[in-house]
Amino acid sequence: MKVTLADSLGTCFGVDDAITEAMDPQFRDNLTIIGQLVHNPQTVQELRDNGIEIVNSINDEIKTPNVMITAHGAAQSVIKTAQERGFKVFDASCPLVMKVHKAVAKLVVEGYYPVVLGQESHVEVRGIVTDLKEYSVIYDENDFHKLTDKPKLGIVSQTTNQIKNVLPLVEKIKALKNADGSDKEVKFVDTVCKPTKDRQIAVEKLSNEVNLMIVVGGFNSSNTKKLKKVCDDKNLPAYHIEKASELKPEWFIGIEHVGITAGTSTPSHVIDQVYQAVLAIGATQTGNPSSEPVLNSLSG
């Protein structure tokens, strides 16, 4: 059984930087992270093991003098609240997420009604819109009714969206009419992050070569779910797992070529464990495992 890793997979620079900052020895036993720093259970546990507290909200009880904003970003009002309560705030927001915040602010200054393409409940989206006086979050065409009386629309996207879905959605919004039948003025700023695009392109390519895909990442990771969706859209069998122990040998019966991809919050050691476990399953079933020599560039 042949096993191939996607050309681009695993943690991006924003996640790596956030983890490195949080694991600094100075923060041991005196740091609280507001929310999950990244959507990966192994990393969250590693942080807890290092004496770092994690809460869901700035309104929860916080016992440490330091707090950290996650890689997903937060509204300025959340940061201000933390500072007013006397906490020292460390901001681990991904620069590409902050690019979205800045793009929205600029669109508002230019007179556009802000529109965010994404999941309204996602922590990144909440951080983007919380400080806005008015806005709409659009997931699909069923949300277009929110835009009926808005003649001038400024659109950004959640960073983890599939660009192949974002662009058609933008075109459909551009085709919407105002109540008087006139065209809407629409400006779109592409804020889907490059690491997300790279991983989506890589899994799209690999999906044409394999019989089965293993997608590694947190079950609450938006970008990981979208990697699996690439496979689902092509009717390629795919399994989303968080760790190697979740692999089931029966998935691989009769499979000749397995692909492995991973979301931008998935550490390289977790990917390696999955890779080795799949090889071991292949060896057990066929006695002749095969793999591509790409382990030296896991994060892509």
Report on the structure:
By secondary structure, the protein is α/β, with parallel strands linked by helices. It has helices spanning 13-22, 41-49, 76-84, 95-109, 123-129, 163-174, 194-207, 222-233, 268-286, and strands spanning 2-5, 31-34, 53-55, 66-69, 88-91, 113-117, 136-138, 152-157, 185-188, 212-216, 238-241, 257-262, 290-291. The protein has a 5-stranded parallel sheet, sandwiched between helices. Strands 3-2-4-5 form a 4-stranded parallel sheet, with helices on one face. Strands 7-6-8-9 form a 4-stranded parallel sheet, sandwiched between helices. Helix 4 packs parallel to helix 5 and helix 7 (194-207) packs parallel to helix 8.
SSE topology:
Layout: E1 2-5, H1 13-22, E2 31-34, H2 41-49, E3 53-55, E4 66-69, H3 76-84, E5 88-91, H4 95-109, E6 113-117, H5 123-129, E7 136-138, E8 152-157, H6 163-174, E9 185-188, H7 194-207, E10 212-216, H8 222-233, E11 238-241, E12 257-262, H9 268-286, E13 290-291
Parallel strand pairs: 1-12, 1-13, 2-3, 2-4, 4-5, 6-7, 6-8, 8-9, 10-11, 10-12
Helix pairs in contact: 4-5, 7-8
